Amino acid sequence: MTDRTPAVPAGPAIALADATLSYGPRTLWSGLTVNVRPGEFLAVLGPNGAGKTSLLKVLLGVQSLSSGTVTVAGSPARTGNPRVGYIPQQKTLEAGITMRGRDLVGLGVDGHRWGPGLAGRRRRRAAVDAAVKAVGAERYADAPVGLLSGGEQQRLRVAQALAGDPAVLLCDEPLLSLDMANQQRVARLIDERRRSADTAVLFVTHEINPILPMVDRVLYLVDGRFRIGTPDEVMTSEVLSELYRTEVDVLRVRGRLVVVGSGDGIDEARTAEVDEAACAGHDIGHTHDHEVSR
Ligand SMILES: Nc1ncnc2c1ncn2[C@@H]1O[C@H](COP(=O)(O)OP(=O)(O)OP(=O)(O)O)[C@@H](O)[C@H]1O
Ligand SMILES: [Mg+2]
């Protein structure tokens, strides 16, 4: 009726339909149907080896599905799609790498978008500067990346992914090796990005608490089984016990989730410590306020 109504409703940013991924005889997951809306924040959780990184590789077009279909930003998943930003699971860069941080960020910028010539180069440089500033990396952006700390490198990777102005942002444990302040900073940055630009975010993590307020839905993968829903629907004792096939308790302590269990891949959070922290009114230890260990 109004001219603000789009003629064609925007399709999902990510669409997986009846997707199966097997490596040889081993099936990581099957029958996975997920539509991620533009601007939606989907957290992907699960123990080591559940197939979280493999899922991102499918979305990046570097790994084919065994069956089913996948579209990303409106077209079949393919490598080199400039509409897709990617923060890879952390690997420390070799000390010998002499590329400057600013150049690493620049690799994420789609050159064509800024136009040719001097003006284009200026606009491109401005985009890199803005991304460097957004992650607070100005101090070390001109140093060789191989000499930076793991957390500093990680912030540059985040800047690189955001500099590309992605419609879909795929993040593989992006908070690893960041201190608490920078975890908050990066999480907020990604949250702002999806709110301001309608970027769909798929966020693989072992620690849901730093992003809990931002998460719309959770996809939880365990040994071929999965559940998808809001955190309240998925992060329950009942659902996690079913997924892990062992007794798991999900505790809510001062707005945080603590998962307690003894199965493979479940953090054995010490309940005594949790109780003590809750009673004493201080924060639970940094290593036990999350749900699944690596
Ligand atoms: N190309 C491949 N060929 C065969 N097996 C593979 C391949 N890539 C990954 N795998 C196996 O598939 C399983 C899932 O790997 P993946 O990296 O997706 O796990 P993940 O959920 O990301 O785990 P983590 O939490 O440790 O990062 C692992 O057991 C891994 O060894
Ligand atoms: Mg992984």
UniProtKB/TrEMBL annotation:
It comes from Speluncibacter jeojiensis. The keyword Iron-sulfur does not apply. This is Metal ABC transporter ATP-binding protein. Transmembrane segments: none annotated. It comes from the Bacteria. GO terms for molecular function: ATP binding; ATP hydrolysis activity. Keywords: ATP-binding, Nucleotide-binding, Transport. Residues 14-248 form the ABC transporter domain.
